[in-house]
Amino acid sequence: MPPRVIETHLMRQARLILDLEDSLVRERQGGKTHPRPFGSISVSLVARVREDGSREALAPPLVLVLQRSRSDYLLWFGLVKRGGPLLRVQLAGRYEVRIESAYYQPALRDDIVVPLANSAYFFDLKANEFHPLNH
Which pTM does this prediction carry? Predict the structure, then answer.
């Protein structure tokens, strides 16, 4: 299969697709690029959001095991870390997601619906004082 077909197939199978951008790099490049973040990124499901908007905290949070696509999207196929070995989970519903990194401020969204393949959730990551371009 050609690489583009393989990527399209993978994205259809993903339970969650994330589109992360570095806002500082984009601003410095005149807003015409879609730069991906520096360094490692941790993505966790921290709460389930009920229909009435109330939150049910997940303690501890579920750390998502992600794969990067050829187009630099982050894909989640249902594997999580929760203290011990990797677990495959079948989740459905609305969740609050937290993104953390050494170079960016923590980012939260509470409108993430799982599963939702073929659509990516955008996160505009804001640099913190440790970002490489802040030195």
Answer: 0.87
Neighbours of 93 (CB within 10 A): 13
**Cβ proximity of 102 and 125 under 8 Å:** no
Judge whether 74 and 20 are in contact, CB under 8 Å: yes
Give 71-102 as a DSSP string: TS-EEEEEEEESSSS-EE----EEEEEEEE-S
Number of C-beta neighbours around residue 92 at 10 A:
9
Torsion sign, CA atoms 59, 63, 64, 65: negative
Residue 115 structure tokens: 């599963």
Residue 1 has pLDDT above 90, yes or no: no
